[in-house]
Amino acid sequence: MQGTMAASVCGYRVALPKASINCRAQPKAKLSSQVVRSAGLKSSARRAAGSLGSKFTGEPVVYQHARFDPLELKRRNGGIYAIAAPVAPYALEDAEVRARLAEEYGFQQIGEPVPENVTLKNVIDSLPKEVFEINNFKAWRTVAITAVSYTLALFLISKSPWYLLPFAWAYAGTAATGLFVIGHDCAHKCFSKNKLLEDIVGTIAMMPLIYPYEPWRFKHDRHHAKTNMLVEDTAWHPVMRKEWENYPKPLKSFMEWGMGPLRPWASIGHWALWHFDLKKYRPSEQNRVKTSLAAVFGFMAVVWPLIIWKFGVVGWVNYWLMPWLGYHFWMSTFTMVHHTAPHIPFKDVKDWNSAAAQLGGTVHCDYPKW
């Protein structure tokens, strides 16, 4: 390997092989001021380029017209801390600077800032018609691959000696991620022309993950509508200074762990906070939310007791909990990589632009075929 890619997972940065994941990131047209917490963040040319930063907690620092890397892992005294890295907006106008930053991050490229006069409609209208066509064969082939993969994973767990179980769990978690991908595409209405069938497939696919389909769909739609908008984006976004100052010490400690060593499973917190509270949904959405909640609670009420009855609590850990944790590792990783990089800002509503957010705020990753 010739280097690593510093990839942010929901605010958590991990070192990934440069040869394995090739990312292309598009920067924003404008970058607004933001507030991050920093401990001992010093000025240097390299940090100005967006490579260094600070511990997750410490003295608050306000940078005007700068972009921060919300999540780069740094091991310090055996711990993992999120650090901030500013990138000046004017620097991204320079092709040489973008090329240098891309090399430093392990990206294939960082694109030019999105012009202010470009709208999301312009982007959609520029796409070829075939990208909007639904491919039934491809959709159901994905279902078949996922079903076979997950079944094989459970079989491997049943046959693996204790020392091979971690590998079987990792494979099962990866296969279970396929269930989420199916639900994701159903939520985006790109799985089938039959929308009722789409919702049924999405609900069933996400049941083993205890992910209620409709609540996730509503929140995910909002994430796409408000990508990288402070407060409004329902995916990961930075903790604001005023919020942090009002947190009690136990919550601050929890956040330090959650945004540090436990970051690869931070999506569990998002799952628990966002998807089970009816108050977070409009009255017009609540009946659909209740249907999805009934589906996942039904799965828990029927399948969990059957697993425990047949294999005991250890069997429940082996066949459900560990694959579920493996799935959340990927869920956290995908979320972090997709919209987080040192040069990608989160903006206040008054400075936010939909085209810049969707294009300039998205990191595209080419994963290896396997």
UniProtKB/TrEMBL annotation:
<keyword id="KW-1133">Transmembrane helix</keyword>
<dbReference type="GO" id="GO:0006629">
    <property type="term" value="P:lipid metabolic process"/>
</dbReference>
<dbReference type="InterPro" id="IPR012171">
    <property type="entry name" value="Fatty_acid_desaturase"/>
</dbReference>
<dbReference type="Pfam" id="PF00487">
    <property type="entry name" value="FA_desaturase"/>
</dbReference>
<feature type="domain" description="Fatty acid desaturase">
    <location>
        <begin position="161"/>
        <end position="356"/>
    </location>
</feature>
<keyword id="KW-0812">Transmembrane</keyword>
<comment type="similarity">
    <text>Belongs to the fatty acid desaturase type 1 family.</text>
</comment>
<dbReference type="InterPro" id="IPR005804">
    <property type="entry name" value="FA_desaturase_dom"/>
</dbReference>
<dbReference type="GO" id="GO:0016491">
    <property type="term" value="F:oxidoreductase activity"/>
</dbReference>
<feature type="transmembrane region" description="Helical">
    <location>
        <begin position="289"/>
        <end position="311"/>
    </location>
</feature>
<keyword id="KW-0472">Membrane</keyword>
<feature type="transmembrane region" description="Helical">
    <location>
        <begin position="139"/>
        <end position="157"/>
    </location>
</feature>
<feature type="transmembrane region" description="Helical">
    <location>
        <begin position="163"/>
        <end position="183"/>
    </location>
</feature>
<protein>
    <recommendedName>
        <fullName>Fatty acid desaturase domain-containing protein</fullName>
    </recommendedName>
</protein>
